[in-house]
Amino acid sequence: MKRNIHMSLLTLLMVCILGIGNDAKSQSDFSRNQFYKAMQGKDEVAIDTQLNILKDSQMQERVAFEGALFAKKASMQKKAHDKLKLFKKGAGNLQSAIKADENNTEYRFLRLMIQEHAPKIVNYDNDLQKDSKFIRANFSSLSTELKKIIKNYSKSSTILKPEDFN
C-alpha cells in the first residue's frame, strides 16, 4: 500500500515537472527573428506557427504579438467576412496592448507595420505618422536585435527609411 502511494506521488511529481518543462520550452521556442520573418512574409503556416508558440506563453508582449499576427493573417483569408473579423480581432488586441503600455516602441512598430499594409477600407492608418515619429525618436534605446529588424523593415517601407536610422 505504501509503495503504491509512493509510486503515485512520484508519477504526479513527474507529470508536474514535465508540464513545467513544456511551458518553458514553448516560451523558449519564441524568436523575434522568426516572428518578424512571419510578419513580413506571405506564409500562413508561418503565422500559425508563431500563434501556436505564443498561445500559452506568459510573455508580456503576447497580446501585442498575437494581435499583429491575427491582423497579418487576415490578409490571407479568402472571404471578406473572415478577413474583417480576423483583422478587427488583431487590431483590437494590438490597440489594447498599446493602451496598456503607450511608451512601448516595439508595439508602435507592430502597429505601423499593420497600418502600412492595411486596406484603406478598414480605415486603420490614423496613427501612422505618430508611430513613425515615435519609432525614430526612441530607436536608440532599443535592443540591437530590434534595431536590426526595424532597419531591415525600413528597406521596404514607404514611411520608414533606412537613412532614418543611421
Fold and architecture overview:
By secondary structure, the chain is mainly alpha-helical. The chain folds into 2 domains: 30 residues; 135 residues. The protein contains 8 helices and no strands. Helix 2 runs parallel beside helix 8 and helix 4 runs antiparallel to helix 5. The longest helix is centred in the first third of the chain and has 27 residues. The radius of gyration is 20 Å and the shape is globular. The N and C termini lie far apart (72 Å). The relative contact order is 0.09.
Please supply descriptive tags for the structure shown above.
166 residues, mainly alpha, 2 domains, 8 helices
Helix content: over 70%
| H/E series | HHHHHHHH
Q: Give the distance, in angstroms, between the N- and C-terminal Cα atoms.
A: 72 Å
Mean pLDDT: 87
Low-pLDDT residue intervals, each spanning 5 or more residues: 6-27
Summed up, the helix count is 8
| Integer tally of domains | 2
The number of distinct β-strands equals 0
Rg estimate, integer Å: 20 Å
The major sheet is characterized as: none
**SS-based class:** mainly alpha
Which strand-content bin applies to the residues? under 5%
Structural shape = globular
